[in-house]
Amino acid sequence: MKKKIQLILTKDYAHIGKKNKVIQVTRGYAFNYLIPNEIAEIATKNKIKHLKMFQVIQDKKLQDNEIKAKQLENNLKLIKKISFLKKTGDENYIFGNINEKDIIEKIFKFTGIKLNKKQIKIPNIKKVGKFQIEINLFYDKYYQLKLNILPINI
């Protein structure tokens, strides 16, 4: 009789590993704790093959997204800064505000790339000046872009 059996984790479990990881544990631990609590299931050849197929698909998507992020970064490097002209009141406070939609339109005008609103982080802009905005390219990869707010002389 085998002392250890293979299981596939169905949930993240701190002591053993992440979801969909193939592990080897003792039979008692598997049948008395992991399987009844639905933390793991018995690993068959077909289930392992299925997991590997999904992992290959996931890796392919990740590579495609990285390539798209690199292309987006190269296109954004062509833009040195984005400038907006705004009417100002007392002490250089601007009328209205600058939001993600305005920035998306400017970037689309210069590069032809349509960004998602959730990809852009902008500070709260109330005055004329220079600001930094962050564009999320891919998971933890950000691109910094300069933003100038200039007053309109009336």
SSE layout and pairing:
Layout: E1 4-9, E2 22-26, H1 27-34, E3 40-42, H2 45-77, E4 81-86, H3 100-111, E5 120-121, E6 129-138, E7 141-151
Parallel strand pairs: 4-7
Antiparallel strand pairs: 1-2, 1-3, 5-6, 6-7
Explain this structure to me?
It is built from three helices and seven strands. It is α+β, with helices and mostly antiparallel strands. It has two domains: 63 residues, Ribosomal Protein L9, domain 1; 75 residues, Ribosomal Protein L9, domain 2 (Roll), CATH 3.10.430. The chain has a four-stranded mixed β-sheet with strand order 4-7-6-5. The chain has a three-stranded antiparallel β-sheet with strand order 2-1-3. A hairpin with a 2-residue loop joins strand 6 and strand 7. The longest helix is centred in the middle third of the chain and has 33 residues. The mean pLDDT is 90.
> Main sheet, how many strands, which sense, barrel?
4 strands, mixed
Coarse structural class: alpha+beta
Say which CATH homologous superfamily of the largest domain is assigned.
Ribosomal protein L9, C-terminal domain
Tally of structural domains:
2
